[in-house]
Design goal:
Blueprint lengths: L1 H24 L11 H19 L4 H5 L6 H29 L8 H25 L3 H26 L5 H7 L2 H28 L4
Helix pairs in contact: 1-2, 1-4, 2-4, 2-5, 2-6, 4-5, 4-8, 5-8
Amino acid sequence: MQALIKKEYLVNKGSIIVDLIILIISPVLLFFSPNGLILGIILSCYQPISNEANEKGNDTDIFMNSLPVTREKIVFSKYLFSLMTGAFYLSIVFLMSTFIPYHEVITIKELMAGIAVVSIYLSVYYPLKYLVGQGFFVISSLGFWVILAALGYSIYNQGESFDYWGMYNSYTTYTRLQVGILSIIISFAVLTVSFRYSSRVYKKKDF
């Protein structure tokens, strides 16, 4: 498993460096909100798509299935690396908000909620990736930015107008501990179900 995670890191090292640069300089250049949590979530969600781009054309699946590792472990390494990268990005923006003056402070409660959002996204992304197979990179890449551009801003404005349909008020009533526990439970549940389904689909594929 350690070798699989190392392989994921080596393949994605360049895009991770670019993402870190974006996280650090975006508030300075004023092209994103000083609260880096949203940007951290966006980059965390885009990471598996970047991974797909980095592996595209290299026949990675054929190579990986020629090694003495189970397909279940290959799928698990994808989930684990994406989750680790997302947690890393969110931790970076959390630390930046704590020590850099021009950042809005991100609370532990917001950080845990952000990890839950990324976990839910990954639990949807990977089953779709293994179901669609070839060509999913183009679909997911275009879909990600189209949805973000077309729906993200609209949903934000609607949420501001309608006080986020009561969800924000409910969120504020929970303590930091409650949000943390709830985030862990939700993340574990959705990722476990998603992983089992993705593994089942991947095992049936021919390479």
